[in-house]
Amino acid sequence: MDPANSNNLRISAQFLFQLFRSCQVLGARRPILLTASDLSAWQLRDPQAIFDSYRLTAMCNAAAGELQQDSIYAAIGSGMMPTGFSDSGYAALFEETVGDALCAFAMTMDLGVDTPMLRWQRTGSTCRLIWDRQHPAGYDLTAIIFALLIEASLVLTEGRASPIKAAYFQHRAPRHLLGNLVKANRPAKVPSYFNQSQTCLEVHPHLVDLPNPLRNAMVAGVNLDQLNRLNRGVRKSLSLTNLSYNYLFRLLDKSGLSLEAAAETFGMAERTLRRKLVAEGASFRQILEQVRKDACLLYFLECRRSLTDIAMKLGYSELSAFTRAYSAWHGRSPSRDLAVHIALAA
User: Fold this and answer.
1) What is the mean pLDDT of the chain?
2) What is the rounded end-to-end Cα distance, in angstroms, of the chain?
3) Which of 137, 270, 313, 318 allows an S-S link to 263, with CB 3.0 to 4.6 Å?
4) Helix ranges (DSSP H) in the chain
5) What is the pLDDT of residue 295?
6) pLDDT of residue 342
7) How far apart are CA 264 and CA 270, in angstroms?
8) What pTM value is reported for the model?
9) Which residues of the chain have pLDDT under 70?
C-alpha cells in the first residue's frame, strides 16, 4: 500500500475503531496499530472525534506489514461488518429489499462527514453506488469501503451471489498486489477496473428488488430514533448526557463501559464527569441502564438471537445478571417477552 494514497478526507473515530478491531482479529497487534496511526485506544472510543484519513492508511500499512500481506482489503472489510446494533449501519440491513438495504447501509456508514460519501443511481438497466466527487479519496479507503459493501451484499443474499457486478476506480491501479475485494471463501468474484471516469460499484439490477431475507419493519422503525440521536450533523451540539449515551451504545458488546474510561475519552477527571452529569440531571449508571434497555428492545424485535447472546451484546458477563436487570426494568422475565416477540413475528 502506497502512502500517497493518503488524502485530506476526515474519518470518524467510529469507522477507525471498527477498522482497528478488524485488524486485531486478523492478528495485527494492538500496540503496532496504535503506534502507526498515532492514536490511543481512548481516542478511538470518542463518539465526537474526527481524524485525517492518513491514519487509516498508516493502520492498514502496519497491519499488512505485520501480517506480511500486500493486500488485505477484503479481510479488513469483512471484519468490519456490523454484528449488532452498537455497530454503525447494522439496522440498515433490515430494510425491505436487497437494494433498499444495500443503499441504506451505504448511507449510514459513519465516516464523519455531514453528507453521504456514496449516492445511489438507478437509470433504466443500470444501478450504481457512486462515490461523491466532493469527497476525494485514495485507494486504501475506497477499497475497504467497497469490500465492506460487497460483504454486506453477500449477507443480504445469504451468500448465494453478490449483487455487486464490478468495482470502478478513477485512480490508477495500486503499486502492490490488488488482491480480491471478496474474501477467498466467498462464492463471488467482483472485478476491479482503474483509470475510469468515476469511482463506483455497479450493481446487478435484477437482484436489487429481491426481498431481503433479513427484512424487519419493526426494527427499521424503532431504530429511526436511535439513528437521529447518533446523527453526524449534531455531534458538536450534544449534551454530555447524550454524548455519554452515544459512547456507551457503541461499546456495549466491546469495552470501555466504565466511568473512568469515559472520563479519559472525554478529557476530564472522573469526578468532573460525574459532577457534570449530575448537573444535567443524570448519572453514568442511569445512562448505561437506558442504553441497555433501548438496545434490548431492538434485539427482541430482531427475533434472531438467544437470551445468552443478547445478554452478551448488552455488556453483561452472565445471563443471570441480564435476567435480574430485565426483571427490574419490566417486572417480568426476559424469556417470556422474547417468546412473545418471536410469536408475533412468526
Assistant:
1) 86
2) 48
3) 270
4) 13-26, 30-37, 41-44, 54-67, 73-79, 98-107, 139-156, 205-208, 217-229, 240-249, 259-266, 270-279, 284-302, 307-313, 319-330, 334-345
5) 94
6) 81
7) 8
8) 0.88
9) 1-8, 70, 110-114, 175-180, 182-188, 223-237, 346
